[in-house]
Amino acid sequence: MEFLTEELIVQKSSQELTALLYEGLLTNLYEAIDQIDESNLFQANKSLQRAGDIVHRLGVGLRYEAGPITENLDTLYNFLADELIRVNLTKNTDSISFLVKIVETLSTAWNDAMQLKNNARADSLIKMVSTYENNVMRKKSNRMREHFHENQS
User: pTM score, two decimals?
Assistant: First the structure.
């Protein structure tokens, strides 16, 4: 995960911030698995708590006016939060790995959706530029015809 300054965070869109939260969540889950494997339960506890904080931030950032997908994400975030509390008590790496799979799926879907949105923006921009260029060329062509006809007379 890239180092984020306050200035860099302010420059990110809400969609990009969500992607960074997913990345941070995954990082903390991977760290917790490694720390448990190394019997560093104190650090694993901290990583799992940070993961829980991130899930909380994801939930707070939901826009409920966006429709049913928001309600589904809220339910999923609540499930993740509950499971993080449970795995922090049990330190079961298989359970954490299960959460990793869920978050990886979410993160991939989120990044794919952002890419589609960016591609749609790019396509729209290309169409606008093309329309503008066609309009400019048509006007230029009309002026050239007018100039040609004026010189023919």
Answer: 0.73
CA dist., res. 36 & res. 94, Å (int): 11
Residue with structure tokens 């729209």? 124
Q: Are 147 and 45 in contact (CB under 8 A)?
A: no
Cβ pair 24, 53 in contact under 8 A: no
State the pLDDT at residue 1: 47
Residues 82-96: pLDDT tens digits? 999 999 999 999 999
Task: For residue 106, give the nearest of 72, 66, 130 by alpha carbon.
Answer: 72
**DSSP of 7-58:** HHHHHS-HHHHHHHHHHHHHHHHHHHHHHHHTT-HHHHHHHHHHHHHHHHHH
